[in-house]
Amino acid sequence: MSAHVAPARRRGLADEVADRIRDAIFDGGYAPGSQLREVELAGALGVSRGPVREALLKLEREGLVRGEWHRGTTVTALSEVDVAELDSLRAALEQLAVTLVVDRAPDLAEIDAVVARMDRAADEHEMVRCDLAFHDAVYAAAGHHRLREAWEAIRSQVHLFLLTRIGLESEGYLAGIPAEHRELAEALRAGDRDAALELFAVHRRRASEVLRGSEH
């Protein structure tokens, strides 16, 4: 006797709507704390409210938006607890990724390609995307499928974290980030695990200190 399963649903439209809303947030169209109204989004995207509602639920699972009965759906504004938890979880994942990359000594061509793109970034939002792409490449080079999935689970929140960081302080960001990541790539290539772990920790700490400093 075969198990009863519900009919499959097509979710392509909701996924596309989620992509559009996510891109708008990451491009700075909706700042942290901004309200996202289903009716307005449906009108702007030319779809019914159903796919928008599904899309917002997907983005809520990513931690990118928050739904509250008295406020509706808003772009997540990171609290002090959010920043601390993201930082500690990212540290744990990144320590394993860096260790694996140093031990495996894989081809770092994709990491180098991202660093080269950073030199051509036109604005802070493009630089943030390059920053995330750099870390994507590090996790890919680690060769650990479940570790990469764990990174993907928090990636949108880290993107929001970096957007919040440049919203608070962007002076020197465009000029300094390429050199900082070039140093990280060189540390991976040199094969010195302790030095690489320390440089990645310093890299994370610089961004976290901007956000934590704004709370005092």
UniProtKB/TrEMBL annotation:
SUPFAM superfamilies given in the database record: GntR ligand-binding domain-like (SSF48008), Winged helix' DNA-binding domain (SSF46785)
Domain of life the protein comes from: Bacteria
Boundaries of every HTH gntR-type domain copy: 11-78
CDD domains (UniProt xref): WHTH_GntR
UniProt keyword terms in alphabetical order: DNA-binding, Transcription, Transcription regulation
Protein name: GntR family transcriptional regulator
Species for this entry: Amycolatopsis bullii
